Amino acid sequence: MVKLLxxxxxxxxxxxNTALLRAAQSLLPPEVTLDIATLHGIPLYDGDAxxxxxxxxxxxxxxxxIIAADGVLLASPEYNSGIPGVFKNAIDWVSRPPKELQGxxxxxxxxxxxxxPGGLGTVMAQAAWLPVLKALGTRTWSGAKVMVPxxxxxxxxxxxxxxxxxxxxxxxxxxGFAVFAKPG
Length: 184
Description:
The chain is of the alpha/beta class. The protein has helices at residues 16-26, 47-53, 57-68, 85-94, 101-104, 123-135, 151-154, 164-181; strands at 2-8, 32-37, 71-75, 109-115, 139-140, 147-148. Strands 1, 2, 3, 4, 5 and 6 form a six-stranded parallel β-sheet that branches. β1 (2-8), α1 and β2 (32-37) form a beta-alpha-beta unit. The longest helix is centred in the last third of the chain and has 18 residues, at 164-181. The N and C termini lie close together (11 Å). 41% of the residues are buried.
C-alpha cells in the first residue's frame, strides 16, 4: 500500500485545488490511498510566537500527516505568478524547528499539481515550488505534469472534474507519482 497526502494550498470552500485532489482520490490505483489536508487553522509564522508558545497544534497535526505519508502532493494555486502566501507560510511552519527538517521532508517524495482560472495553469507557481522543495531536501517527482488552466471550465459548480483530458492526465499523474513514492 502506498499512502499519499494531498495538501490544498487554497483556503476557499470552492477551491479548484481541493477539488483537484478529490478528483485524484477517485482515480487512484487500488493499492494507493490519498488523504487530503487543508491549511485551515495555521497562523502566520512568527518566530516570537514560536519561541513563546511553541509549534501550533494545526502545524503539529500537518507534520504528523506528512510523516505518515510515503509521498506528498501539493495542489497549488497560482497567485500573482507565484506560490500563494498561505501555502508557503504553512510549509515554513512545518519546517520548524530546523532539527526536525530531515525527518519531515528529507528524501520524502513530493510533487506539485495545480488548477487556476487563468490561462497558464499554475506553471509559474509550480516552478517557484522547485527551489523550496530542493532546499527542504525532498525527492521531487517530475515525471508528469498537471497544470489545469481555466479551471472554472474544467469543474462543474459542485466541484466535480468534468474535463476528460484533465481526468486522464490526473489519473496518469497519480499512478506515476505513487510508483515514485512507493517505499522500499
